[in-house]
């Protein structure tokens, strides 16, 4: 194994790991957004959301 090959493979492995983490985070975010949309559609609201219909 040459030094150049070792360095190139190290960069390649690091790039693959980083891309996997980015994809995982993106897909998980989409799943959480879908879950939130389903909860809001069923009438469950966030505690931080302003109540509708209340006179302030």
TrEMBL record:
<dbReference type="GO" id="GO:0005886">
    <property type="term" value="C:plasma membrane"/>
</dbReference>
<keyword id="KW-1133">Transmembrane helix</keyword>
<dbReference type="Pfam" id="PF04995">
    <property type="entry name" value="CcmD"/>
</dbReference>
<comment type="similarity">
    <text>Belongs to the CcmD/CycX/HelD family.</text>
</comment>
<keyword id="KW-0201">Cytochrome c-type biogenesis</keyword>
<keyword id="KW-0472">Membrane</keyword>
<feature type="transmembrane region" description="Helical">
    <location>
        <begin position="6"/>
        <end position="27"/>
    </location>
</feature>
<keyword id="KW-0813">Transport</keyword>
<keyword id="KW-0997">Cell inner membrane</keyword>
<protein>
    <recommendedName>
        <fullName>Heme exporter protein D</fullName>
    </recommendedName>
</protein>
<dbReference type="GO" id="GO:0015886">
    <property type="term" value="P:heme transport"/>
</dbReference>
<keyword id="KW-1003">Cell membrane</keyword>
<comment type="function">
    <text>Required for the export of heme to the periplasm for the biogenesis of c-type cytochromes.</text>
</comment>
<keyword id="KW-0812">Transmembrane</keyword>
<dbReference type="InterPro" id="IPR007078">
    <property type="entry name" value="Haem_export_protD_CcmD"/>
</dbReference>
<dbReference type="GO" id="GO:0017004">
    <property type="term" value="P:cytochrome complex assembly"/>
</dbReference>
């Amino acid at each position: 194994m040459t030094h150049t090959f070792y360095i190139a493979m190290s960069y390649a492995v690091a790039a693959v790991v980083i891309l996997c983490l980015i994809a995982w985070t993106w897909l998980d975010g989409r799943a959480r957004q879908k879950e939130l949309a389903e909860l809001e559609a069923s009438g469950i609201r966030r505690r931080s959301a302003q109540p509708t219909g209340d006179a302030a």
